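Backbones bend. Our protein:
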Amino acid sequence: MVGRERHKPYERPPLSKAVLVAAEEPRLDVLPQEVWALGDIDLLNGSDAVDLDVSKRQIRLASGQVLAYDMCLLATGGEPNALASAPAGHPHVHYMRTLEDARRLRV
């Protein structure tokens, strides 16, 4: 599993509920590490997939590394919709999508 974020896949709903206000950051993992290992699933966190060659069943990462795959599920993710009246980057406007976003906003 290739993902841009540096973290293992995690539950996003708690970002705005538990992460922002909890005394300690809660565990957000979708699955325990053992499950990934039992399923023979490699996690390549902090990696961008930049090219997909369906005929060769290969994915090229931004690093240049080429990975072969048996099956590919392409999930491109999403970004928050920025309001024209509240642009991202404004010092008083914060959009939250990732664990890093929640950590920056944490009280």
About this structure: The two ends are 32 Å apart (CA to CA).
